[in-house]
Structure formats: C-alpha cells, structure tokens
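Hi R.,

Quick one: here's the DNA-binding protein with PD1-like motif sequence you asked about.
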Amino acid sequence: MKSKILNTSPERTIALVFDKGDDVVSLLEKFAEDNALSASRFSAIGALRGAVLGYFDWERKEYERIPVQEQVEVLSFNGDIALDGDRPKVHAHAVLGRRDGSTIGGHVLQATVQPTLEVLLIESPGYLRKTCNPETGLALIDIDA
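And here's the predicted structure, written out as tokens:
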C-alpha cells in the first residue's frame, strides 16, 4: 500500500492505494495506528479477489459471515476509523458487484485486493471514540466520550 497526503486544511486528506494481495482492514488499521489517526472517514473504489462480509444477527449479537470467493468490483466501500479503547478500529460496509451484474453487500470483515483499491481517507478534526454498547455488544461511536 502506498499513501500520499493530498491536503492538510481544513481536514487532512490522504490517498491510499492498495496493491494486489493487500488485506484492506488490517492495513487500514495499521496505517491509522502508525499515523496516530483517531477519527477518520473513508470511501474507496477498486476490485477484490475475495472478501468476507457480515450481516449482524440481532438475536445472537454476532455477525453471520458471508464469504465472497470470486473477483468482484467495489461499487461502494465506506466507513470510519475511530478509537476502540486506545487502538484504531475500522468499521466499513461495502457493496460488491459480481460478473453477472448482481451485487452483494454487508459489513466488511475481511477483503483482499486484486488488482487495486483506491481509498480517500479524511481525518476528522475531533475525536471519535467507540465504546461497547451493552445492548448490542458492538463497539459503537460514542459522541459523548
């Protein structure tokens, strides 16, 4: 993955270009940690050779895993990076396009790039803190933190 700062004011904007074989979620979290990003939002386009999406099962309070084991176009990929405790955590959703024009979407648990993924990441001026929500069991943005 390569990165370049595009501007620093009013909000820092960074372009990230992922390479074939890169694991999106882990590299985004590492980039956020290495660059002390505590609150950011991002969007992306590109393609993946596979992914694992999730659908949150309200009754079980866990994600049902949806494996995507084919080449797909990234039609929409949006999310945020916020602190979960003292570590940055990625929360992203995607809609992926299949060869036949059908789509599949959900919470991004894992995604492997092929051939590229282009991400525009915008650092927010304030802090976004995630805290564990007792009703859902999820780490959710706590605007009062």
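Residues 2-142 form a domain with the 60s Ribosomal Protein L30; Chain: A; fold (CATH 3.30.1330.80).

Cheers,
M.
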